[in-house]
Amino acid sequence: MTSQRTSPEGKRSTSSKNNNPRKAKTKRWLWFTLGMGGIAMVSGMAGALLAVSWDSTPLQHSHLSATEASVFDGDRISGDGLKFSQLTRPVNILLLGMSVLPPDVKNPPPETKNLRYQVQLNSFEGLSDVMLLLRFDPETKKIVILAIPRDTRIEIEKHGLKKINAANVYGGPALTAKTVSNLLDGVGIDRYVRINILGMGQLIDALGGVNVYVPRDMNYRDDSQHLYIHLKAGEQHLNGDQALQLLRFRHDALGDIGRIQRQQLVLRALINQALTPKTLTELPQILNTIKDHIDTNLTVEELVALFGFGVQTKHSNMQMLMVPGRFSNLKEFDASYWVPNQSGIDKLMSQYFSLGSIAQSHSGISKDPAQVRVAIQDSTGSNNAHLQTLVRMLEKSGYRNIFISRTWSQPLDVTHVVAQDGDTDSAALIRNSLGFGEVTVESTGNISSDVSVQVGKDWLRLVN
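The chain above was modelled as a monomer; its predicted structure follows.
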């Protein structure tokens, strides 16, 4: 990373270590296998591995005061007894990805002081590099993943207008949760998870790597951090280190927003490959691998319930969004920001996080076709005449604000009609007007559009 980092005064360490061997021994995890004797578990499977600990939150490395803990909803989210693996209500989880260098922490390890480069630390201090709000909803049977750009301009309590990723520096997960809630119409946050970048690489390796389409050749060298990115464009199987290279690359026209789009591609690929009953049985080993790199107030039972819900959820019901907004203009503020669009946030939170009345949840979501901004992104390498034919089809249906955008690098067999800001009604209407393709909810399209049509081979089969 080459972005400037700050180390505000008054930063406190939230890490606490237990030096009592006897107490540490009582917190050892005991893994056991539930019998195969017909006990119904996730996805109707009999038996699963469950992590059990004498400590209800064995993965929590930070100490929260009573006031800080009260920021999170402490009510039970999973069943009891044999129903421990079932979610009992909608749950919002704040996920923070941490990339921490020695200048980010109050007392960096002595061995890092004489190095000629900035080494990644296994710490939860510093700026949050990735911010996601995940909603697991057993009522709608959907999972929503909302990306929050780390440069989002927001009022942080007692610290003024800052970039939202600084909230972790000033007050750890509790202040970050409070700040995110203030940004997102007061949404409740039930639990938090902080994972260090070192743990993210190990997690991907523990899952066997990830198959993902790298959108372009990526080459970047930063000797100051020993960050070396060398990836070729195309479909590839990436190990943990290579996946981190893809996730950390920022040197394109969209900067951090482009990075969020790549995060969604990797997340979608991981979800498709990892949310399986087989992975559920491997969950204890996976948690044991990354336990030193993860900090969360989730219990192991709750983790099993969340993962089990994910296994049961259709991939088409996993929706990826991004906080709507715009890049700040040059010299508009003292730094570059992502300026949130409050009207867009209101609509998004109403539709996807059940805030507001039922009437409000559909008010203003679907627009007049003439007002919908439609971007066309070709993935087939077809000639411009084919795209103009597509434009004319949409114009006959009343769409007036249509533009041809940069090509979509990944070859698609089926056209994606992308609800860029979560407006599924408008995306569905466009799909119906075209008569082909499938609606997806993610933020991988053109950021200036309401709906992006990523043209696939199904379009060529229609016109040829």
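Residues 28 and 337 are 44 Å apart (CA to CA).
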